[in-house]
Amino acid sequence: MNNKTRPLESYLKPLIDALESYYFKSGLSTPFPLYMKYLKITLSVVATLSFFLSFFLHTAVLRYSIPVSIIASIILSLIFTLVVLFLLLYYPVYRGYSRRVEIERDLPFTVSYMGALSSSGMSLERLLEREGLYETNTQIKREILLILRDIKVYGLDTLTALSRAALRSPSRMLTTLWLGLRETYITSGNLKGYLSHYSSVLLSDKTQRLRNITNSISMIAEVYTTLMVAGPLMFVTMLMIMDLLGGTVFGLSPGLLVLILTFIVIPFSAIGVYIAVDGILSKA
């Protein structure tokens, strides 16, 4: 029995390790083993309830035979269970992504402020205390307070606390900041020079990203003007002329095509443009 389960465990272990890494960076307070336990319980409840509800629906309402009801209930129960499994597994990934976006939005300004504080010659621990006191970004402040917790409550040294912070950070930029502070603290101790250089790098990167976003929005605006304003006017004019001449397009009357264009094509195209713009702006 153990020999049979070993291949399955060896196959699932990389997936579980990857999920644990995402979960560790998601910022959820529930321990990962407990989260996996809740996941198993939730899947069992969903599978059981969906099966019996589906079986009742097929037998009492739809009047299907027992064998057909059982097969249909198993299929629906499997679908519901897989959907819930996907949502529960994806939630830590999405949470980590949202934290990364929020951190990287304000990180250049945080590093600039830390560079200004380091000009006074204060120690790294004191620098983190001051930054944690005045930081306005919720996620960055949380990461700083966790470092201070590791130092003051758990008794870890500053270097170990920074290493732990780099491992749990969902942002590569923030990870680079913690590791850079650690290496600078070990070697030269010139925190001001490192923070000034890194803040200039982050600000330059943010400027370039905003420039790319502006160019993308401008391109979408031109496409929107062409396809959503000029295009429908041109097609409606052509279809109305065809309707007067008595022509058809693939067997469909021009009047019907105008209705399809007005109530289906244009609204859904506008929704698509809105989703594209929202996706681009979310990267800002």
Order of helices and strands: HHHHHHHHH
Spans of at least 5 consecutive residues with low confidence? none
Gyration radius, to the nearest Å?
29 Å
Count the E strands.
0
The major beta sheet can be summarized as: none
Measured distance between first and last alpha carbons: 53 Å
Number of domains: 3
Mean pLDDT: 88
The helicity comes to over 70%
Strand content: under 5%
Total DSSP helices: 9
Structural class category? mainly alpha
3D shape: flat
Can you give a write-up of this model?
This protein has 284 residues and is mainly alpha-helical. It folds into three domains: 2-100, no CATH class; 103-205; 206-281. The protein is 86% helix and 0% strand. The protein is built from nine helices and no strands. It has helices spanning 2-26, 32-61, 66-118, 124-134, 138-152, 158-168, 172-186, 191-245, 254-281. Helix 8 (191-245) packs antiparallel against helix 9. It is flat. The two termini are 53 Å apart.
